[in-house]
Amino acid sequence: MKAERKYKSIDLFAGIGGIRLGFERAFNGALDTVFVSEWDAHARQTYRANFDDPFEIRGDITRIAEEEIPAFDLCLAGFPCQAFSLAGRKKGFEDDYKGQARGSLFFDVARICEYHRPKAIFCENVKGLKMHDRGRTLAIIVNTLREIGYGVCTEVLNSKDFGVPQNRERIYIVAFRNDVDASKFAFPQGRAASGRIRDIMERETVSAKYYLSTRYLETLRRHKARHVSKGNGFGYEIRDTNGVAGAIVCGGMGRERNLIIDDRLTDFTPVTKIKGEINREGIRKLTPREWARLQGFPDAFKLEQADVHLYRQFGNSVTVPVIEAIAGKIKVILDA
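RE: above sequence
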């Protein structure tokens, strides 16, 4: 019986570890993470609460020399998507944020992988990357990987096709070193959407703090009415719990675009400072745990941060079952 191969991986722009979690599930004990980098302090806290590593999580990858990183077989990199998002300014490689060019962070992935020559590279980003600058941005990424010796495959997949009730399209980039026979690699196809929002709802009545105040609800309704009058589709949205959620995002209308009606609340005493009263229509936001489930995180995943940080972290994270499905296909190639 052939012994199972072991692989070493690094987790760049790690967030709260969603990509790593998907790969660990697929590799089933055959993956050893040897390096993690994440610049956001709150995300690092969530990551540390859920992964027991014998090393410290490093910060800004642009300040870390490739020689400081241990040898590895797999590079996992969810490089920042804001520069390419359809919801953002779409400035791509020219995007600057607090003095840091977010779009150019992909090139840190390239320089590290050019030095270490891992067997495979995995990246995830927003669907907007595919069409940004008429496809030229993605072409630069693909050509850069080819120039350093990798064959590249890309695909847009939707989370709702992988067992979670979230309509979330993302682009996935898989690159194999040229000496790895990847001729049989294919992205997973997924299946027809089957999950429903009610499947991820809290089993018990949630805190009154998640229910919208009458004043805030009226503000949302006025805001939506203004946009409707202009022919726009912006504004809050109440989702059918027998259907799927829209893509959760890190800010803006992320929570308000995925409101639900949950009439289980009986105590309408506010637990936070609000204007007006708690609405009697049962309209509430999804909780951070429900957002975690929309991304396919297990209930054992520890949520120890304040809600404001958790919403941002899960909105910025990945859908774990999609990652697991792709990782399984990558493992088949590497094990061959």
